[in-house]
Amino acid sequence: MSSTAVFVLGSLSSSYILFLTGASCYVLIQSTLAYDHCSVQQGVSLSVIPVAPLLTWALNDPSFDFPVVAMVGIADIGILFVVGGFAAARYRYHLFTATPAIGTLGEDSLITETDDLMFVVDNKERVATSNRTAAETLDVKQGDMRGSSIKDISGYSLSELSDAETVSLTTTDSTRQYDSQVSTVTDPYANQLGAVISLRDVTDREFRQQQLAVLNRVLRHNIRNRVDVAKSHAEALPDDTNSHRAAIISTVDNIVSLSNQARQIDQYIANGNTIESASIPTVITNTLSTIDTNGLSISTDMPDSAMVTTNRDALVAATESALSNAVDYASSTVSITVTAVEMGYQIEISDDGPGIPAAELDSLDTGVETQLQHTTGLGLWQIKWAVQTIGGNVTFDTESGTTVTLTIPDDTIDK
């Protein structure tokens, strides 16, 4: 074979080897960049191993006419790079001690083990995979779902599932309500590949909410009508020495107040996302004007302006309940202080009464009312729920009388 042919074959072989080495290093590093559970440092370290011998081989070409000692030194350096690259991957970046597969296996477990109906769809809304729960719930084999349109499976397109709060699906049991969550899947270059769809059964929650809504409306409406009738009859009775008439009217008024509180709670919870500007001193002043203070000494220490952007209905409800509680149980004085704090304002309402019973505060802390542990009405619950609605905080100090501290955040302040 001529020297020219040998040179050509040698050049082609060298180029082919260099191409394979470069391509494999590129794929290796690109894969570590694409998957979070693979270390980029591992990829770089492993890429050094094939590159170093090639460079050594190229530098030891006889055409360079290096001395033998230099050629041996270059070969040794190449070996050191190989050993160093492997050592870095093994000991520094945990090549064998880490388990990259746990990332993929963990992601698979999230889909297969959850009780939610899970689907992975491509950018044409075709089902790529689904979990066992979806197949069993919809009575469709996983293999049959693969490649089918998500609309054919669920009755909803991807955009409909993304926009809807809840969707109805016919299952093996009955028609159920599901909370729909859609998450977009992209590659490392932000190209949309498809989406992950999660459907959570909220039938019982929706049914319970519907029950509460109906009961709340019907009970408040009927109680108010019946109480108005009872009060009108009581007021028609003549005064008696035993004060039966006054007792009936007082009891009826308490029932009406309880119904109004329930309506107020329902109103600010339903409008939880509605915020507007409100002046805390104005809210307090207006509330005091509607409360019979029974000759108590009321002192206030408030700035001229304490504006917050919040759910105004909830702010009014919390302030009204706290002030009413203080006025009802105070012996002689009620003090109100408003101070600026980091994220908004703090309202402190103190009275010199006997203090809120520990059992009632325990009921608020546990969030449950029992026969032995309960509040005497909705007042304290209204304070707690209203403050929670606006993202604030409430504390009760009963060491000396009662001090209710409401922290009211301002939604215009960056958290």
Classification by helices and strands: alpha+beta
Reading the helices and strands in chain order gives: HHHHEEHHHHEEEHHEHEEHEEHHEE
* Strand numbers in spatial order across the main sheet: 2-1-5-4-3
Largest sheet composition: 5 strands, antiparallel
Uncertain ranges:
369-375
Head-to-tail CA distance between termini = 79 Å
Helical fraction: 40-55%
Overall, the morphology is elongated
Strand content: 15-25%
Number of helices: 14
Mean pLDDT: 77
Overview of the molecule:
It is a single chain. This protein has 415 residues and is of the alpha+beta class. It has helices at residues 3-34, 40-59, 68-92, 101-113, 132-138, 142-145, 150-154, 158-163, 203-236, 244-270, 280-289, 312-329, 358-366, 379-389; strands at 117-122, 127-130, 166-170, 175-186, 192-201, 276-279, 297-301, 307-310, 333-341, 344-351, 393-397, 402-409. It has 14 helices and twelve strands. Helix 11 (280-289) packs across helix 12 (312-329) and helix 12 packs antiparallel against helix 14 (379-389). The relative contact order is 0.06. Mean pLDDT is 77; it is low at 369-375.
Architecture blueprint of SSEs:
Layout: H1 3-34, H2 40-59, H3 68-92, H4 101-113, E1 117-122, E2 127-130, H5 132-138, H6 142-145, H7 150-154, H8 158-163, E3 166-170, E4 175-186, E5 192-201, H9 203-236, H10 244-270, E6 276-279, H11 280-289, E7 297-301, E8 307-310, H12 312-329, E9 333-341, E10 344-351, H13 358-366, H14 379-389, E11 393-397, E12 402-409
Parallel strand pairs: 7-9
Antiparallel strand pairs: 1-2, 1-5, 3-4, 4-5, 6-8, 9-10, 10-12, 11-12
